[in-house]
Every structure is written in structure tokens, then in C-alpha cells.
């Protein structure tokens, strides 16, 4: 890879009327996340992409914020225009200041674009002004007659189906958009073809299809289910009581006869959950990521740690399936705070509260918990990660 910067423009400004839903299709759920989240992540986590510029409809700003939450390398979204072509032009203009050498333009409704395809398109730009992901046509093609039957068989030799990403030298595609007629182009490569500029064809995978109709989502769910695996992690933590009048458990402040001693806010529940997620990722433990010797974590709210672990899951293309927490103490009573804790944990993790269990037990007066010297917490986290995650 050269030092030249490659940006991505992800086009998500459409209203998605063909999918026949009120919510635009790019914000519909797919594999427990939004469709657009998958498409954004493919570029946001690709090592050769400097930053991702999304183009959205103004009325979908809130939905976009949800879709983008936790992903790295995203620029603030810009608003699209009346047509796809106008939306791309807005996205290209927005990154001009940053001085990209190359740009990849991608449909937000193609969630299955592979790392390999992104790399191959970028690679092709070292010798071509433009390069697009495409698939050779393998079906026999028929032209329909006026009567609705078959008029003729069309030769398919040399025919390809244009997909995205479509990559270009930035200055070339910017100039093409600025001089293009206002309407008509359904892809970006066609703007260069009109000027006789060479655009390379990069063979793509058949799974990189565009979700257009409602039925496409069922197929996409099946594809996704086949590409994910389940992982489990265990977390355990103990904090000792000291003088005080409040404990923070599961992100909820509970009045008590003591407080928990610790470098951070000593939220033993969130620490156990954080370690459970690191465990599921095989990504070390909380002490490695947030060393107690580092003064910046003194008195830190523990949601910072849980945020970080959930962020790692999302960056690796995964999702949190459920969390199961057990608090071990004689006091304070956990029951009255159980729901508030589950709701707070769910909020931090961006999942439904129905995926978070908060349980409590005593130790019948035995051991340190029984002597009320401290509180222990155990947690199990279940996550889904792309099957390919462990193989790279
Ligand atoms: Mg701890």
C-alpha cells in the first residue's frame, strides 16, 4: 500500500420505497443490527481505508447515529441530494479538504462486501483511473417481445453486472461528477465511460448483492447466520468494603452502610461483565486494558470499561447476544435494584434489557461475602463473531 489516502463514500440517502416499509431499508434489522451497520463496518475497519463518509437523508440522522454507534473512522454524515448521483457528488465534495488520492463509492444496501473485494478494487487503482467490483453474467439472457414472450436470445459474451465498491482516482471522479449532466447515471463508472477513461473490472463475489426487496432480507439473514459463530466468556471480580455510605453496582448507585474499595468506582458487577466480554473475544482482561497503575482510571466510572469491551465486539463485526450476571453478597439487597441494573447494563451495551439477566445470591454467612467483607460478581457473556474472525 502507498502512503496515499483512500477514503470511502457510503451512499445511504435512499428512502427505500421498493422494500415497501416505512423505515428506509438500510436501517432495517439484519442479524441483530441495522443493515447499514454491516456496510459501514466493512470499510470503517478495513486497514487501507483512512475514513468513511456516509451520505444520508436529513430525516434519518437519528437512525444513522444508531447505525454508526461504536464504529471507528467515520466522518460526520452529510446529506444526500435528489438522486443517487447528487448524493455521491455531496459525499465527494465533503471529503475534498482531506485530500484523498482515491475514493471507493459503495451502496449502503450491500452489507456483504468482503475485505478481499475492497482490497482488490484499491489494488486495481494503481494502474487504472477507475475500477469496479463486478460479476460476469452467467445466465442466458432473453429480450422480451412486445407480446410479452421471448423475442431473442442476447449474447452474454463480455457482459458484466456492475456492483460496488466502485473505486476511482479522487480528482478524476470529482471532475466527472462536476461536469456530468444532472440526472441519469445509476452508477459512477458510467460518468467516466462517457469520457473514454479506462475503468477496470474486478471480479467480485456473488454474495455482495444489493438488498432491494423485502424478500432479500430473509436470504441475507441466512447468509449471515452461516457466517457467524457463538463464543462465550466468563468474568469474576471481588471488591472489599471500606467506610462509606454508597455502593455502585451494575451502574446503579445504592445507599449502603459501606462503600466498595477500588481504583475506579469499584463497580464489581460491571468489572465482571467487562471481563466476560474480553474473555469471549480472547482479548485479555480488564487489568491489561485499564492498568490500575495508570492514574487516569482513578475514580473512573466503570461504564468506560464495559463501553470499551462492547466496542471491541462491534469492531470485529460481532454482537452481544446476552449477558448473565450473579452478584454474591449478604447486603445490600439486590432485588429492588435488579431491573434498574439490567436496564443500565443494556443501555451501555446497546442491547435490549431482555438480553441481560441480573441475579443475586448469599453464601449462607460463609466466607468473605458471608462475613460482609466485600462483594463478588460472576458474569457470563455470549457473543456472535464472524466465523472468519479467528482465521485472519
Ligand atoms: Mg474490579
Could you give a short account of the major beta sheet?
Answer: 7 strands, mixed
- How are the strands of the biggest sheet laid out side by side? 5-4-1-6-10-7-11
Mass-distribution shape: elongated
Strand-pairing-aware structural class: alpha/beta
In short:
This protein is α/β, with parallel strands linked by helices. The chain is built from 12 helices and 18 strands.
Key descriptive features of the protein:
392 residues; alpha/beta; elongated; 29% strand; 18 strands; binds magnesium ion; five-stranded mixed β-sheet
Written description of the protein model:
The two termini are 19 Å apart. The protein has 12 helices and 18 strands. Helix 11 links the parallel strand 16 and strand 17. The mean pLDDT is 93. Helix 3 crosses helix 5. By secondary structure, it is an alpha/beta fold. The relative contact order is 0.12. The chain is elongated. The site of magnesium ion has 5 residues, from strand 12 and helix 8.
Amino acid at each position: 500500500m502507498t502512503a496515499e489516502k483512500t477514503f470511502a463514500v457510503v451512499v445511504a440517502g435512499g428512502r427505500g420505497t421498493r422494500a415497501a416499509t416505512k423505515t428506509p431499508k438500510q436501517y432495517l434489522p439484519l442479524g441483530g443490527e441495522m443493515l447499514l451497520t454491516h456496510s459501514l463496518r466493512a470499510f470503517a475497519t478495513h486497514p487501507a481505508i483512512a475514513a468513511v463518509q456516509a451520505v444520508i437523508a436529513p430525516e434519518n440522522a437519528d437512525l444513522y447515529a444508531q447505525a454508526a454507534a461504536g464504529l471507528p473512522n467515520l466522518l460526520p454524515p452529510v446529506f444526500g441530494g435528489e438522486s443517487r448521483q447528487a448524493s455521491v457528488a455531496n459525499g465527494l465534495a465533503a471529503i475534498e479538504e482531506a485530500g484523498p488520492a482515491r475514493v471507493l463509492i459503495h451502496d449502503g444496501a450491500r452489507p456483504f462486501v468482503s475485505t478481499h473485494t475492497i482490497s482488490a478494487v484499491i489494488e486495481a487503482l494503481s494502474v487504472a483511473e477507475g475500477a469496479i467490483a463486478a460479476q460476469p453474467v452467467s445466465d442466458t439472457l432473453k429480450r422480451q417481445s412486445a407480446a410479452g414472450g421471448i423475442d431473442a436470445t442476447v449474447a452474454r459474451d463480455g457482459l458484466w453486472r456492475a456492483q460496488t465498491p466502485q473505486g476511482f482516482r479522487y480528482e478524476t471522479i470529482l471532475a466527472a461528477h462536476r461536469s456530468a449532466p444532472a440526472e441519469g447515471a445509476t452508477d459512477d463508472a458510467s460518468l467516466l465511460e462517457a469520457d473514454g477513461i479506462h475503468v477496470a473490472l474486478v471480479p467480485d463475489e456473488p454474495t455482495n448483492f444489493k438488498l432491494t426487496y423485502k424478500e432479500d432480507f430473509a436470504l441475507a439473514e441466512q447468509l449471515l447466520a452461516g457466517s457467524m459463530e457463538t463464543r462465550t466468556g466468563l468474568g469474576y471480580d471481588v471488591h472489599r468494603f471500606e467506610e462509606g455510605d454508597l455502593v455502585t453496582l451494575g451502574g446503579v448507585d445504592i445507599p449502603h452502610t459501606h462503600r466498595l474499595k477500588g481504583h475506579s468506582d469499584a463497580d464489581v458487577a460491571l468489572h465482571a461483565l467487562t471481563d466476560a466480554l474480553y474473555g469471549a473475544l480472547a482479548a485479555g482482561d480488564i487489568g491489561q486494558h485499564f492498568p490500575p497503575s495508570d492514574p487516569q482510571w482513578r475514580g473512573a466510572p466503570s461504564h468506560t470499561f464495559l463501553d470499551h469491551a462492547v466496542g471491541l465486539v462491534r469492531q470485529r463485526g460481532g454482537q452481544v447476544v446476552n449477558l448473565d450476571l450473579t452478584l454474591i453478597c449478604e447486603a445490600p439487597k439486590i432485588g429492588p435494584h435488579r431491573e434498574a441494573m439490567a436496564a443500565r447494563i443494556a443501555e451501555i451495551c446497546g442491547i435490549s434489557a431482555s438480553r441481560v439477566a441480573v441475579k443475586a445470591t448469599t453464601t449462607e454467612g460463609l466466607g468473605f461475602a458471608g462475613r460482609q467483607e466485600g462483594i463478588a460478581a460472576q458474569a457470563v457473556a455470549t457473543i456472535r463473531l464472524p466465523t472468519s474472525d479467528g482465521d485472519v
